[in-house]
Design a protein that fits this description.
The longest helix is centred in the C-terminal third of the chain and has 23 residues. This protein has 615 residues and is an alpha/beta fold. Helix 9 packs antiparallel against helix 16. Bound molecules: 2-deoxy-2-amino glucitol-6-phosphate (AGP). The site of 2-deoxy-2-amino glucitol-6-phosphate (AGP) has 15 residues, from helix 9.
């Protein structure tokens, strides 16, 4: 949820840290700070707010430092403040660290360190690590670690329990940065200008497209001359180097006013890339799952586990898997799944959906499911992420890096991937013929062009957004797979515009939510062509009868609906099973438009972070 960046080399560190932090800002953005080696000491600067505030504060500092670390924070322990912003330093101020993750035993360690005279300046869990390193470095733990930052770091992480990505610098060791991780990503790259470390590839790929992904328990020792890697026992290792083939322009807005709009417009490409190469010899192929059709045929229960938007993709998957493959499917938020005792057997398939691939609750649920003997498939956007590595098989969504906190293109990639999985399960069970599979695949591929059509004229969405922007609350309703689309539409609206929104299966209206409706209350209805279209029209009429303002997402050519709704947003005709792929797009645009009209920060909404690596 936070971001780490570090550089050591021949060039000024300050602009490199700022540039890296800006690229990482989407992960957390309530405060930021740097520690730079300078004049034989460390210079620490922290600011509350966006990285731009830190950049401004650093403008009066010269460029003499060539080694340092930086951090952008999303508060867990301790409110956003300069005191709680990273880097944190030791009592003497000669050791500084940045940390992502949670130190679970920090309270005991803090007490222990206080009793030995350490003085704490923050409320964070992280600060204990700086003091533990200090004790080891200055010889209070014996001579073994004395004067050696790497050994002192090893000693410190031996004391802590939790998740961490850590980078540390020391005033007495110019040009050196030491790094380690457990359950929190760290990547390193060595380029022409020196050595880089970050918690996310996006902060290092300008330096080099070849990056090393640190594994749990490994350490990296960075100097301007190179990076050395060590395993948990201290043996030198050569980590595999991953070549990053996506372009740095994912980190640029490319002419769009915000990343969210850019990412919405990338969705036709996401559909095409996610489908590419999946139909071979007339049947579906997803080799990365590592299970044969015969093995898939043995699956008798599916759980989809995920959080937030990814959970909504799971709701859509349930409809498709049960409709085509006839396998009972439950969708559960990961934070619930992990704490109850779900019925999982070796013939259960658990599908873990996570854009970031690092969501703590989803990871914990994966681990739990595997212990219980289930097969786990991950659906993620991030190659080599913990979800990918801890699953038996994985489907990558090919959305490429998503910067806006509100998921759009990743969601679409998830829905397309889950649609393929549902088709594959049906193929393995003999519930769909190869002819049917080919037809579905071809119609699925057509949705890319249909999204382009939706994006080519957004006038109706903008008009509807203007009509709804001042509302205090909105209701999203739909039936069947349309209700799943509504959950996602409502989440998008509330997370970026702070307008309260709720989603209901439309048949539930009369059982409570209808009480909310009065003159001008916005009701957004997914009313595309489906077997329950007539029922949805009845729900629209019920809403209109209470004075509600109805915005309908409807199928092109549907003249009838214009008689009932105040605003109609037409989308191309697709089969009901694929309507989530097309109908989600106007809802994304609707949410964004309202957020813009309300003056909200579309890409970095308050209180949220892109990846939720804590419980
Ligand atoms: C989506 O707009 C949200 N930012 C959020 O609900 C997100 O989908 C959720 O935190 C799950 O993240 P994941 O897909 O990375 O696991």
């Amino acid at each position: 949820m936070c971001g780490i960046v570090g550089y050591t080399g021949a060039n000024p560190v300050k602009p490199r840290l700022i540039e890296g932090l800006k690229r990482l800002e989407y992960r957390g953005y309530d405060s930021a700070g740097v520690a730079m080696q300078q004049d034989g000491g460390l210079t620490l600067v922290h600011r509350v707010g966006k990285v731009a505030e830190l950049e401004e504060a650093l403008s009066s500092f010269d460029d003499s430092s060539t080694c340092g670390i930086g951090h952008t924070r999303w508060a867990t322990h301790g409110a956003p403040s300069e005191a709680n912003a990273h880097p944190h330093s030791s009592c003497q101020g000669d050791i500084a660290i940045v940390h992502n993750g949670i130190i679970e035993n920090f309270a005991e360690l803090r007490e222990e360190l206080l009793s030995r005279g350490h003085v704490f300046t923050s409320q964070t869990d992280t600060e204990v690590v700086a003091h533990l390193i200090e004790e080891a470095y200055d010889g209070r733990e014996g001579d073994a670690c004395k004067g050696d930052l790497m050994k002192a770091l090893r000693h410190a992480v031996g004391r802590i329990v939790g998740a961490y990505g850590i980078a540390a610098v020391c005033a007495q060791e110019p040009g050196r940065i030491v790094v380690t991780r457990k359950d929190s990503p760290i990547v390193l790259a060595y380029g022409e200008e020196g050595a880089y470390v970050a918690s996310d590839i996006i902060a290092v790929i300008e330096a080099s497209r070849d990056v090393a992904v640190l594994e749990d328990g490994q350490f990296a020792d960075m100097t301007p001359e190179g990076i050395s890697y060590f395993d948990a026992a201290g043996n030198a290792i050569e980590p595999p180097i991953m070549h990053v083939d996506w372009d740095i322009d994912v980190a640029e807005k490319g002419g769009y006013p915000d990343f969210m709009l850019k990412e919405i417009h990338e969705q036709p490409r996401v559909v095409r890339d996610t489908l590419a190469g999946r139909l071979s010899g007339g049947s579906l192929v997803i080799d990365e799952l590592g299970l044969s059709l015969e093995e898939l045929n043995l699956i008798d229960r599916v759980y989809v586990i995920a959080c937030g938007t990814s959970y909504h993709a799971g709701l859509i998957a349930k409809h498709l898997i049960e409709m085509w493959a006839r396998i009972p499917t439950e969708v559960e938020v990961a934070s619930e799944f992990r704490y109850r005792n779900p019925i999982v057997t070796p013939s259960t398939l658990v599908v873990a959906v996570s854009q970031s691939g690092e969501t703590a609750d989803t990871l914990a649920a994966i681990r739990d499911a595997r212990i219980k003997g289930a097969k786990v498939f991950g659906i993620t956007n991030v190659v080599g992420s913990p979800v990918a590595r801890e699953s038996d098989g994985v489907i990558y969504t090919k959305a490429n890096k998503e910067i806006a906190v509100a998921s759009t293109k990743s969601f679409l990639g998830q829905v397309v991937s889950l649609t393929l999985l549902a088709m594959l399960l049906a193929q393995s069970k003999g519930k769909l013929t190869l002819g049917q599979i080919r037809l579905l695949y071809s119609e699925l591929a057509d949705t890319a062009e249909q999204i382009e059509e939706i994006l080519s004229d957004t006038t109706a969405v903008e008009e509807a957004a203007r009509a709804c922007k001042d509302a205090a609350s909105a209701l999203f309703i739909g039936r069947g797979v349309g209700s799943a689309i509504c959950y996602e539409g409502a989440l998008k609206l509330k997370e970026i515009s702070y307008l309260h929104a709720e989603a209901y299966a439309a048949g539930e209206m009369k059982h409570g939510p209808i009480a909310l409706l009065d003159e001008g209350f916005p009701v957004i209805v997914v009313a595309t062509q489906s077997p329950v279209y007539d029922k949805v029209i009845s729900n629209i009429q019920e809403s209109k009868a209470r004075g509600a303002m109805v915005v309908a997402i409807a199928t092109e050519g549907d003249q009838e609906i214009a008689k009932h709704a105040d605003h109609v947003i037409y989308i191309p005709k697709v089969r009901d099973a694929f309507s989530p792929i097309t109908a989600s797009v106007p809802l994304q645009l609707f949410a964004r438009e309202i957020a813009v009209l309300r003056g909200c920060d579309v890409d970095q909404p308050r209180n949220l972070a892109k990846s939720v690596t804590v419980e």
